[in-house]
Amino acid sequence: MKKDKRGRLEGAGWKVGDAVEFLELTKEEAAFVELKVGLATSLKKRRQAKKWTQTQLATAIGSSQPRVAKMEAADASVSVDLLIKALLTMGATRRDLARVIGAPKARSAA
Hints:
Blueprint: H1 3-11, H2 19-23, H3 27-49, H4 54-61, H5 65-72, H6 80-89, H7 94-102
Helix pairs in contact: 3-6, 3-7, 4-5
């Protein structure tokens, strides 16, 4: 957020912060969320790069299209192991996964 906009909001009585502050996440919880978002983002980018539909990926991992949509959205109901399984199915290597896991703020793509 731009500094001037933040100043105007705070001046009007609004509290400005991030999701970590709002949800009162611990450092470990925030790191886990960032990891999961990174894996989900990586999965979506890899699927799109291979020009697969969500249905094709779902079939390959024995799941459903709505589940793949939830995976790509880093839905709370999706486990990290399912994200990793899908990435491996899409051809990601251990090194690719390590890059995603080690990336700051979950911005990497396997």
